[in-house]
Amino acid sequence: MSTEDTTTDRLQRTTRHRFDQLKGQLFEALLVVATLVGIVSLLVLFGYIALDAFQPMTASAQWYLLYFGTLVAPSAAFTLYARRRPAVRAANARAFAVVFGSLAVSLVTYVVVDSLSPYDVLIYALFGAIPPVLIGLYGRERHSQLTGPAIPVSILLGLALAGGLYGVLRPIVGLTAHWIAYVGIVTLPVAAILGALETHRRSRREGAFVATAVFLVTLAVAVGGLATGRDPSLWVVLTSAFVLPVGYVVGETVLTDEEGRIGVLGPFIVIGGVLLGAALERALGIQGLEGFLTPSLLLNSWDGLNAINAGVYPQIVGSIVIVGFMSIMAFPVGIGAAVYLEEYAPKTGPFGRLATLLEVNISNLAGVPSVVYGLLGLALFRNTLGFGSGVVIAAAGTLGFLILPIVVVSTQEAIRAVPNSLRDAAYGMGASRWQVLRGVVLPRAVPGVLTGTILSLARAIGETAPLVIIAVATTTYTPPSGLFSSATALPLQIFAARSNVDAAFRHGVVPAAAIVLLALMLAMNASAVLIRNRFDREH
Amino acid sequence: MSNRQDPEANSLQRSGFVVRKERLYGGLIAACAVLTIFVTVGIVLALSGQAIAFWSEISPIRFFTGTQWSPIISQNYGVLPLVSGTLIVTICSALIALPIGLAAAIYLSEYASARARSILKPALEVLAGVPTVIYGYMALVYITPLFGNVLPLSVGLIPPGVPVLPEFTLVVPALRTFNALSASIVVGIMIIPMVSSISEDALSAVPDSLREAAYGLGSRKFDVSTRVVVPAATSGIVASYVLAISRAIGETMAVTMAMGMSPQMPYFPNVLRNLAESSQTMTAAMVQIAGADQTPGATYEAMFAIGMTLFAITLTMNVLAELVRRRFREAYE
Questions:
Q1: Is B77 helix (H, G, I), strand (E, B) or coil?
Q2: What is the pLDDT of residue B90?
Q3: Residue numbers in B near A359 (CB within 8 A)
Q4: Predicted pLDDT at B100
């Protein structure tokens, strides 16, 4: 009898056990599905957009085969090869960052300076940069205490002076050619930076040599361009901000990094694959992609009637200019506020309570809907300060207010992550509060601050609602030409085009513009993640 | 002489200039902090000035109880259709995002391997980073046609044989070009990461001792997750819900593009009809006014009145979330 009892008992227990096990597995599966729902649905929607933008069915099978041979297979093989060798992988990553980073920087610089007029940028850059450089050099020779605070003051005074003398200077500067202005804006700083790098690595003589070489090569390129009768501006910028820095870094790696030198090939395999593919495509007459994500989309102005010619060049430049001015205005203030809250603000007493209130206030600001910031911008910039509707500075200021709390909160986190022992050690050695901050805390916090600021840039570049509220034009046909000129931004054009029922726009140009916007945002997010990962690994 | 003085002051003696320099830097940095206060004060002043001007023309009672919103055509300033439009989107997107977000948070904090988490967490964060104007475009151009093929359908909640009034049958009619369903879906997807990341922080903050105690008593992972960890993190989860709902209320571009600009009072009793019809949220109404002629007048000021209402609602919710979260912090630290 008793044996029967235990059998049923055990049987019951195993059924129960099985049931519980099944329940647990089902629950876990449910959780996995829920986690993937958002990601998968987003991927599906991205897929729709990509299908419309690239129209992959228009290309022939040969086209896919061609690019598989020239681009996909070689880069995949190289990645597999590099994966096992840490030195090669590191050199590869560095080469990718340098090649595509400096390409992006030089193109953005050219485009922005071109739209804002090279002469104006040259005037303000010279007056803004020369005084602090002179003061810095003087301070290094004399070890003067004065130079620290004098640098920001001299920048502001220099810029104000440039504004005052603009009427006199503009005709004089206007006598030179465009490309000479670009030499001043781009080549000069690049030569200084590369020269300083080489001085730091080797000696002063070699540094001077590198700086002179940058100058001479750029001049040679400019003269070559002039000889063939073209405006050499773009070539000047590309040579000094892309070709020469890449050449310097690649040469440096090849000469010094014996183990990893093969890694610098990575980006060139990709670029070479694209160029070879394009050349073969033309030579063999292969049917390629007929999508809307073409050079004409990136380089033309908007055309509301003709989809093939419609482009978003003014919109892209507008976005970059607005976000650029926004960062100039918002980042110093945001980082300053975070430094105050973490390092200076009293923790106790009535002022301490005030500081806590300030902190709560900032975290609440981060939760205010972005449209409300639009109303703030409208009231402040148009009604109070009397700027025109939708000018660059109003848009930049409005977005600046919007991202200010994000910058403050992320900077605070980065500063808080710096261990207190470092501060104590520095104070123990007699450093003042500012010295501790500048020499110990801020350098350690830089990666965190950088991550936060890049993420806020990514947020700002996609922000639309506040710009609509402050009446930024949804479509303009020329890029902005200054702080007080009207501009539009890429997301605004997507918003404006929603009512276009023409299939070529609805399932063509607008998805392609959306891909451009997504690419900008994803590239920023990815670089923020990379910086964060690198930082995590180092500590 | 020297031993009478405070030794610390003596050793840390700095020249007057250095002290002044330090003070200058401190002042500059404090000025930055003060500027953030200026932003808050600026928002409140900007909103309240125009909003008060509006409410002195149109009585607040008419504004908050009116069921007609047609500011540009016939000067009807009743905000209720806009509030109901906002509510529809908020409720529906919350129905999507809150369960999914919580499930994702439980998976990430309790089940996922470190490797899976390192991939899934940034992938989820991308959802929140996609510009909302792109979400709006996706809803308008891709989601609406997708669901348009399935609808109309009647939901068989009430069996066909049961004699009830025909208007009580739950039917989703064919989707309009602009509709609340598509808007809610994209807003829901958009706020999933907000729920999941804040809830996950709360779940991870539950001390391991609680989990170990439950395992020690012979519990399974399922029971530990659902009966120990989730209840222990309730306040953090609630805070994430409140913040996500606040974000859904303030969401602008996606609802403007996907839901249209035709303010409606909700349909009763067939509530599902509201999903298929176009409507307008408070934020979309602001965009519409801003896009129209911006001449001073009651319509222009109405934009600020809505903004003030919106600001008050979201501020209340954010403060509420913070209070809930405070309670949870006290429990475990």
A1: strand
A2: 94
A3: none
A4: 94
d(CA A505, CA A500): 7
Q: Rounded CA gap, A73 and A71, in Å?
A: 6
Q: What's the average model confidence in pLDDT over B167-190?
A: 79
Sequence-separated (6 or more) residues with CB below 8 Å from residue B109: B200, B203, B204, B229
Closest to A94 (Cα-Cα) out of A304, A266, A344:
A266
Residues A235-253: b if buried by 16+ CB within 10 A, e if exposed: bbbbbbbbbbbbebbbeeb
Higher-confidence residue of A245 and A285: namely: A245
Q: Are the Cβ atoms of A371 and B26 closer than 8 angstroms?
A: no
With beta carbons under 8 A apart, name residues in chain B contacting A30.
Answer: 103
**Contact (Cβ atoms closer than 8 angstroms) between residue A34 and residue B193:** no
Distance CA A336, CA A412 (A): 10
CA dihedral A201, A207, A210, A216 (to 10 degrees): 170
Residue A401 CA to residue A391 CA, distance in Å, equals 16
Sequence-distant (≥ 6) Cβ neighbours of residue B278 within 8 angstroms: B176, B177, B178, B179, B180, B259, B260, B261, B262, B264
Q: Residues A243-258: pLDDT tens digits?
A: 888 988 888 888 887 7
Give the integer Cα–Cα distance in Å for A12 and B44. 67
**Which residue type is seen at A26?**
L
Chain mean position to CA A476: 24
For A117-145, how does the pLDDT look when each residue is reduced to its tens digit (9 = 90+)?
888 888 888 888 888 888 877 777 776 66
Enumerate the residues of chain B whose CB falls inside 8 A of the CB of residue A465: 132, 252-253, 283, 287
Half-sphere exposure of B161 (CA within 13 A, CB side): 0
Q: Are A264 and A210 within 8 A, CB to CB?
A: no
At A158, list the tokens.
């220099």
In terms of CA atoms, which chain B residue is nearest residue A29? B107
Structure-block tokens of residue A488: 């539009």
Q: How far apart (Å, rounded) are the C-alpha atoms in residues A342 and A332?
A: 15
Check pLDDT > 60 for residue B5. no
CA of A442 vs chain B CAs: smallest distance (Å): 14
Contact B103 A41 (CB under 8 A): no
Is A465 in Cβ contact with B253 (below 8 Å)? yes
CB B231 within 8 A of CB B212: no
- Nearest Cα neighbor of B88 from B232, B289, B284, B287 is B284
Count the neighbouring beta carbons within 10 Å of the beta carbon of residue B12: 11
B219, closest residue in chain A (CA to CA)? A20
Task: Kindly compute the dihedral angle of the four CA atoms of residues A267, A269, A272, A278, in this order, to the nearest 10 degrees.
Answer: -110
Contacts of B28 in chain A (CB under 8 A): 336
The answer to whether the beta carbons of residues B69 and B306 sit under 8 Å apart is no
Give the whole-angstrom CA distance, residue B245 versus residue B91.
8
Going by pLDDT thresholds of 50, 70 and 90, the confidence category of residue A538 is low
With an 8 Å Cβ cutoff, are B307 and A344 in contact? no
Q: Do B133 and A494 touch (CB under 8 A)?
A: yes
> Which value does ipTM take for this structure?
0.86
- Reduce the DSSP state of residue B76 to 3 states and report it: strand
- Element containing residue A515 per DSSP (H, E): helix A510-538
DSSP assignment of A360-423: HHHHHHTTS-HHHHHHHHIIIIIIIS-PPTTBHHHHHHHHHHHHHHHHHHHHHHHHHTS-HHHH
CB B193 within 8 A of CB B125: yes
Residue B238 to chain A, least CA–CA distance (Å): 16
Torsion of CA B227, B230, B232, B236, to 10 degrees: -160
**Is B134 within 8 Å of A374 when comparing Cβ atoms?**
no
